[in-house]
C-alpha cells in the first residue's frame, strides 16, 4: 500500500483524490448501495435523497469541505450527490450497521500513543486509502479511510490524532456528519479545538472519537447531537469499543451494542494494563501484537471473517493503525495485524528523533 499526496486548494485536493482513486470510489458506491438495501431498505437513488438533509448542516459547520467533495466528484467522474451520500453513509445506515473497532490511547514514558483496529465489511478491504493532505488553508494531515471520504482515522502535523468507534443508535439530529467532523478535527491545531468541534459544532449521530496530542493529552468523546460524554485518562489510558459508557450528556442516547463490545473492552484494558511490559521500551510492534489478539474469537479484538455469523455481523479487521503522536509518526498495517509485519510509516518532521530529510514522506518497510 502507498500513500497518496494531495496538495493545493480544496478543489485541487478533491480532484486529485478523485482521479487517483476513482475506481475505488465507484466500487465503494456499489458496496454501500448493497449495504443500504440490506440494512435500511434504501436503494442508492433514495439514499442520495436522504443525504440531502445533511447538506445544510455541513454548509453551516464546515462549508469549505463541500468544495473538496465537489472536486472528488469531478475527479472521479461522479455526481456531487454520490460523494455527499458516501460521506453520510454512517448516518444513513446508523440504525443497523456498526463496526467492531477497538481503540486506545496510552501515555508512557513521555510518549503519547494512539491506536486502533478498523473492523468493517470485507468488501471494503481494497477500497482503503492512505491520504497525505497538505492544503493551502489547513494543517498538513494523514487520513486512513475509505476512498471518496474526506477523512476517517489519522493525525496532523501538530501531533493531534483521532480514532473512531462506531455506535449503533437510532439517534440522528443536528450537527456535522461523523466523517466530516473527523476531518474538521484533523484540521485543528490542538486538543482544545478538537473538543470544540464536538461541543459546539456537534455531531449529528452518535460515535466515539478518541482524540490525543503529542503533549501527553488524551480524551474520549462520545459525540452526538447534544453535549458529548467525556472519558479522561485513567493512569494514562483511555479505551473504547462500540458502546456508550462515559455518562454525561451521552447518557440520554440509546445505543444498541453488539454482544462482543463489552468483552473486547475488558480484554483491551487487561492487555494494556497487564500484558505490556512494565519496564523497558515499547513501540509499534508491541501495539500491533496487542491489536492482533484473538482472545474470544471470532468476536475478538482482531476479527476474521466468520461465515457462520449473520450477514450483518460478518465484519473483519481491515486495517490497524498505531500513532506515536509525540514523534508525529503514523504506522499502518493494511489487513489484519496478525497476518503481516509489513507496514507503511508516515512521519512529520521537526519532532524529537525525526530525521528532517524524512519529513512528511511515506516510508514503506
Automatic annotation (TrEMBL):
Record keywords: Cell inner membrane included? no
Q: Which residues form the Peptidase C45 hydrolase domain?
A: 108-337
Q: What InterPro entries does this protein's entry cite?
A: C45_proenzyme-like, Peptidase_C45, Peptidase_C45_hydrolase
Renumbered to this chain, region (Disordered) spans 339-365
Q: Which Pfam families match?
A: AAT
Q: Which residues cross the membrane?
A: none
What are the protein's GO molecular function terms? transferase activity
Coiled-coil boundaries: none
Record's keyword annotation contains Cell inner membrane = no
Q: Which UniProt keywords apply?
A: Transferase
What PANTHER family is this protein classified in?
Answer: BETA-ALANYL-DOPAMINE_CARCININE HYDROLASE, PEPTIDASE C45
Name this protein carries in UniProt: Peptidase C45 acyl-coenzyme A--6-aminopenicillanic acid acyl-transferase
Amino acid at each position: 500500500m502507498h500513500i497518496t499526496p494531495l496538495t493545493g486548494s480544496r478543489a485541487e485536493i478533491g480532484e486529485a483524490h478523485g482521479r487517483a482513486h476513482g475506481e475505488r470510489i465507484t466500487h465503494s458506491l456499489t458496496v454501500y448501495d448493497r449495504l443500504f438495501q440490506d440494512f435500511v431498505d434504501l436503494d442508492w437513488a433514495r439514499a442520495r435523497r436522504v443525504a440531502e438533509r445533511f447538506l445544510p448542516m455541513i454548509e453551516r459547520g464546515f462549508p469549505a469541505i463541500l468544495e473538496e467533495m465537489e472536486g472528488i466528484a469531478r475527479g472521479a467522474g461522479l455526481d456531487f450527490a454520490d460523494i455527499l451520500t458516501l460521506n453520510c453513509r454512517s448516518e444513513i445506515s446508523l440504525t443497523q450497521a456498526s463496526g467492531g473497532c477497538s481503540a486506545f490511547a496510552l501515555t508512557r514514558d513521555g510518549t503519547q500513543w494512539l491506536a486502533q483496529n478498523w473492523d468493517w465489511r470485507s468488501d471494503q478491504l481494497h477500497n482503503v486509502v492512505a491520504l497525505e493532505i497538505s492544503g493551502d488553508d489547513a494543517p498538513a494531515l494523514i487520513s486512513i479511510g475509505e476512498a471518496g471520504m474526506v477523512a476517517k482515522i489519522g493525525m496532523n502535523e501538530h501531533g493531534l490524532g483521532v480514532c473512531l468507534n462506531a455506535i449503533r443508535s437510532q439517534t440522528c439530529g443536528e450537527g456535522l456528519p461523523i466523517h466530516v467532523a473527523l476531518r474538521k478535527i484533523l484540521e485543528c491545531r490542538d486538543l482544545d479545538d478538537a473538543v470544540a468541534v464536538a461541543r459546539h459544532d456537534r455531531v449529528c449521530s452518535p460515535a466515539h472519537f478518541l482524540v490525543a496530542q503529542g503533549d501527553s493529552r488524551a480524551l474520549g468523546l462520545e459525540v452526538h447531537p447534544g453535549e458529548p460524554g467525556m472519558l479522561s485518562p485513567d493512569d494514562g489510558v483511555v479505551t473504547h469499543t462500540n458502546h456508550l459508557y462515559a455518562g454525561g450528556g451521552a447518557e440520554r442516547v440509546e445505543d444498541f451494542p453488539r454482544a462482543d463490545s463489552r468483552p473486547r473492552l475488558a480484554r483491551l484494558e487487561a492487555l494494556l494494563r497487564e500484558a505490556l511490559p512494565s519496564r523497558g521500551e515499547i513501540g509499534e510492534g508491541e501495539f500491533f501484537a496487542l491489536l492482533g489478539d484473538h482472545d474470544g474469537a471470532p468476536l475478538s479484538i482482531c476479527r476474521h471473517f466468520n461465515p457462520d455469523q449473520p450477514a450483518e455481523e460478518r465484519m473483519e479487521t481491515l486495517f490497524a493503525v498505531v500513532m506515536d503522536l509525540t514523534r508525529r509518526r503514523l504506522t499502518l498495517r493494511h489487513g489484519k495485524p496478525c497476518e503481516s509485519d509489513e507496514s507503511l510509516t508516515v512521519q512529520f518532521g521537526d519532532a524529537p528523533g525525526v530525521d528532517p530529510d524524512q519529513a512528511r514522506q511515506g516510508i514503506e518497510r
